[in-house]
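Lecture 7 notes: from sequence to structure.
We start with the chain below.
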Amino acid sequence: MKYIAYYIELDPVMPAREYLYGICQIHPVETLEETDTGIVAFLPDEEEQEGFVQALNDFEFPGAKLTYTIKEFEPTNWNLLWEENFEPIAVGDDLRIRATFHEPDPSFKEELIIDPKMSFGTGHHQTTWLMLTLMKKEAWKDVKVLDMGCGTGILGVYAAKHGAKVEGIDVEAWAAENARENAEKNGVEMKVYLGGEEKIQGEFEVILANINRNVLLEQIPVYSRHLKSGGLLFLSGFYSMDLDMLKAKAEGVGFEFNAMETKEDWVAARFTLKKS
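Predicted structure tokens for the same chain:
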């Protein structure tokens, strides 16, 4: 299958990129690559492109200008593309994230092996790095965890390596499969389900959700119904300017804001569901 790559540039990039993410979610965009000037969106060539092109042509955001170019992309080159550009990344001085084709580095206390393929979550994006930074402060042994929108499974894999019982959910079939593969590569168990919020079953002690602002605003009430009293909610995928909006939504369904980490205007936030 061939892919069509849309190289989209925004001037200025923020906050218009967050709005553009929302547009991509309602079209058959299979993966996104963030760039300094915007994003690259990949759509299967067999999918209808007209609606997405029209959305780009009609794009309006106050003070922002959008331009784009299109390139046909051979999927056989996908792995080569990200291998050429994917370098190991450190989260603090004790955690290193690498792919299978990188050599281990014994100077780090811990390594996660993540082969992203077409899924989001290698640690390179600010939000994944921020979530891991917050997670490193917690104890995970025997904790029941949901990794919502798990992508590569990187967050769930980290929790599982530290003793958590993890389930993951993603709406994309290739992401769910990728998460299962990465769990196996790291020698941990992680049940991964294909679907959305309708796949959440039972109660968890921790929910991890690194998605985007609009999905989080929609799903926060669902998370509150599936967290045990006193449970933790970790959120990311949004900008600093969106934090107050998300805090208000979370507090409206019983959460208390505890802590946050920021990096380059991105945020990861920790909430506790108040004990009833």
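Points to note: The domain at 3-78 is CATH 3.30.70 (Alpha-Beta Plaits). The radius of gyration is 18 Å.
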